[in-house]
Design brief:
By secondary structure, the protein is of the alpha/beta class. The chain has 13 helices and 12 strands. The mean pLDDT is about 95. Bound molecules: pyridoxal-5'-phosphate.
Length: about 375
């Protein structure tokens, strides 16, 4: 029985309109509905990595199962991973901060930089977690529209900021449009915005360039990266941030001591050691991305946009709810975005293995030509 306390009731009431993150469907529920095995579901909805095989990970996981002792708290693994990242990125270890996924780092950044009445800004459309985290903390979130060609409207964005705007989140390559912003526009933001610019590079391994080395030039820049995409560890939750050592150090003081488990840390360390395999898988994805893009643009009524990430933004003339339902009936999951900017009827589709994409292409062709 919850005690009848006024303050407690007020706090619970405040949460009544918020929503817990519960997926509408899972591969498991869809598989059950279709009477097929979960492994047969083609997951093109969450930009996960389908190019590193499960058997590749099984081998590393078996090695780790022998080596690890789960009875103990993580000890040196965090500093070992930071050391490995230092070599991989060619940046000082003091500039690197680890998080339980980059989501956790977004939350730490918001907690640290936004006091009461302070604001954050981002672009629209983009990754929705920036808005969710900022508003969950009770702060104001402002969005500034991209140009119709998906480029950054720096002046438009700056005109929406005020003396209370502390943070500016830019996802580049941007989820869901897929394009990477040119450095000239990012540089303008870094020079003109009187706050911290966070460049979320979750998909940067699939893109032409990174801004990571600019942290030595711009003290107001934080770069976010993740092991969830190109490194295939979405389920193990490891992200990292790159920033001026003073900012990285301040953020580290807000973190819980054992925020990442030993297993995830060790797996990331092993994966950095096998980075050639990861690199090869990125090259394969990029080749497939071009093929997939070209095939999609040939379907009547379908438009696909060039991508610097591991997914494609696609528009169709057909209703996207109907499309998603029909695809799901064939065991294929994609993300329904409906309308974004001037575009109606958008889907976001992860670049899967060729056989997965072919199945998707066949069904799309059938649906669009009917
Ligand atoms: C742009 C962007 N940033 C961050 C994340 C989350 O990354 P992580 O798994 O490291 O929390 C995602 C996940 O889809 C993303 O699209």
């Amino acid at each position: 029985m919850i005690p009848k306390l006024e303050w407690l009731e007020a706090k619970l009431r405040k949460m009544q309109n918020r929503e817990e993150y519960i997926p509408k469907y899972t591969p498991e529920t869809v598989a059950k509905q279709l009477g097929i095995h979960e492994e047969e579901i083609i997951r093109l909805d969450k930009n996960e990595n389908l190019f590193l095989s499960k058997s590749f990970f099984s081998g590393i996981l078996k090695e780790l199962a022998e080596e690890l002792d789960p009875r103990f708290y993580p000890q040196k693994e965090k500093s070992t991973l930071i050391h490995e990242l230092m070599e991989y990125l060619d940046l000082p270890s003091e500039s690197i901060i680890l998080g339980n996924g980059s989501d956790e780092l977004i939350e730490t950044i918001v907690r640290f930089f936004l006091g009461s009445n302070e604001e954050a800004i981002s672009i629209t459309p983009t990754f929705t977690m920036y808005q969710i985290i900022v508003t969950n903390q009770g702060n104001t979130f402002i969005d500034a529209s991209l140009n119709d060609d998906f480029s950054l409207d720096v002046d438009g964005l700056l005109s929406k900021t005020s003396s209370k705007t502390r943070l500016c989140f830019i996802c580049s390559p941007n989820n869901p449009t897929g394009n990477q912003f040119n450095f000239e526009s990012i540089k303008q933001l870094l020079d003109k915005f009187r706050g911290i610019v966070i460049i979320d590079e979750a998909y940067v391994e699939y893109a032409p360039y990174s801004v990571r080395e600019r942290i030595t030039e711009y003290d107001n820049l934080i770069v976010l990266r993740t092991f969830s995409k190109a490194f295939g560890l979405a389920g193990l939750r490891i992200g990292y941030g790159l920033a001026h050592p003073k900012i990285a150090s301040a953020l580290k003081k807000l973190q819980l001591p054992f925020n990442i488990n030993t297993f995830s840390l060790q797996l990331a360390i092993k994966l950095l050691d096998k980075r050639e395999i990861v690199r090869t898988s990125i090259t394969r994805l990029k080749t497939e991305r071009e093929r997939f893009y070209k095939k999609l643009t040939k379907i009547p009524g379908v438009k696909a946009f060039p991508s610097n990430a591991n997914f494609l933004l696609v528009t169709t003339e057909k209703d996207t709810n109907m499309m998603c339902d029909k695809l799901m009936n064939h065991g294929i999951l994609v993300r329904n975005l409906e309308n974004i900017l001037h575009l109606g009827r958008c889907l976001r589709v992860t670049v899967g293995l060729p056989e997965m994409n072919n199945k998707f292409l066949n069904i799309m062709t059938e649906l669009c030509c009917s």
